[in-house]
Specification:
The protein has about 140 residues and is α/β, with parallel strands linked by helices. About 35% of the residues lie in helices and about 20% in strands.
Length: about 140
């Protein structure tokens, strides 16, 4: 696969999130893609673990989706590079999919409408988790060869 040949910096609009759909991605290829594009790879999962108080007994992420969206924005703010590749957001999406309140639609709509990000944001996801309402102009599929 020529994943490292994809230009992440050409994302338009540059202040909104974009989806990078990549099934069975390889960690080495992800690092090569980030290196080629001078991008920062950030794990949502690790960011979440760092934000949790040490005495928390359970998570209720669906009760404060705005906090998770603010965290995505903060990840962009904290990066020293112009491009951020956000990994592991699939853990939040999967969590929201199994919630009886079905807040996944609200999450996707809020993420899609997010703007004025300080960095170009690419969210790495398996293609099966891509929302149907996401604009084709704001997503890219990396195919296995």
């Amino acid at each position: 696969m020529q994943s490292n040949a994809f230009q992440l910096g050409g994302a338009v609009p540059s202040d909104k999130p974009h989806l990078l759909l990549w099934d069975r991605f390889d960690e080495h290829e992800l690092k090569a893609l980030a290196f080629y594009n001078d991008a920062d790879v950030v794990s949502y999962r690790l960011d979440l673990l760092n934000r949790l108080p040490p005495n928390i007994s359970n998570l209720a992420l669906h009760e404060d989706l705005d906090q998770e969206l603010r965290s995505v924005r903060q990840i962009c703010h904290n990066s020293h590079k112009k491009i951020v590749i956000l990994t592991d957001l699939d853990c939040l999406i999967t969590y929201l999919l199994i919630q009886p309140e079905a807040k996944i639609t609200l999450f996707w709509q809020s993420l899609y409408r997010m703007r004025q990000l300080e960095k170009i944001l690419w969210i790495l996801l398996p293609s099966k988790l891509a929302p149907p309402m996401w604009s084709e102009e704001r997503l890219h599929r990396l195919q296995q060869t």
